[in-house]
Design brief:
Rossmann fold, alpha/beta, 7 helices
Length: about 170
């Protein structure tokens, strides 16, 4: 069961690998792989591909049980990188019943970008939920989008949310 992993989500690539999963890590910067091996104990058996998410998702032909996307950086545009075409390609890579998790660093708690990206996953026929960090910081917050090809329940998902996070389902 291959698992496409851009970066951390519920389980790290190393944890998935040690549980017998096939893990592929994609990063535009090859130095990231070396840093992950040295500082985060990423096993050498994990497949590492140097590529951007847009190009990888367009060319890849394998299907994956889960896809974790954690991209960003200074002056990074989530909406440029995760446009509707890229999201459609990522959706195509997902196996039946699979899940996609996207971590988004927001400029503020009410940042509209996570909602717009979540809507694009919803347009691809996925069941979409959003976890949002409840913070008093005016300049920074986190959002995690769960786009699922299976029915999820609020009760089950709420168990994953720390006490300072809220959970909402995006209704089509």
């Amino acid at each position: 069961m291959p698992c496409y992993w851009v970066a951390a989500a519920e389980l790290s690539p190393g944890m998935l690998h040690r549980r017998g999963r096939s893990v592929t890590v994609v990063d535009v910067n090859p130095i990231s792989f070396q840093l992950a091996r040295v500082f985060f104990w990423m096993p050498h058996g994990i497949e590492c591909i140097t590529d951007g998410i847009r190009d990888f998702a367009r060319r890849e032909t394998r299907r994956f049980d889960s896809i974790g996307i954690d991209v960003g950086g200074p002056s990074f545009s989530y909406e440029e990188t995760l446009d509707q075409v890229t999201i459609a390609h990522v959706r195509r890579l997902l196996r039946r019943g699979g899940r996609i998790v996207v971590n988004i660093s927001c400029d503020a708690f009410d940042d509209p970008v996570p909602g717009r990206i979540a809507s694009m996953f919803n347009a691809e026929g996925l069941n979409v939920w959003m976890f949002r960090e409840n913070t008093t910081e005016a300049t920074e917050a986190n959002a995690v989008i769960l786009a699922s090809a299976r029915v999820e329940t609020c009760v089950a998902l709420a168990e994953y949310a720390p006490h300072n996070w809220s959970l909402a389902e995006l209704v089509p």
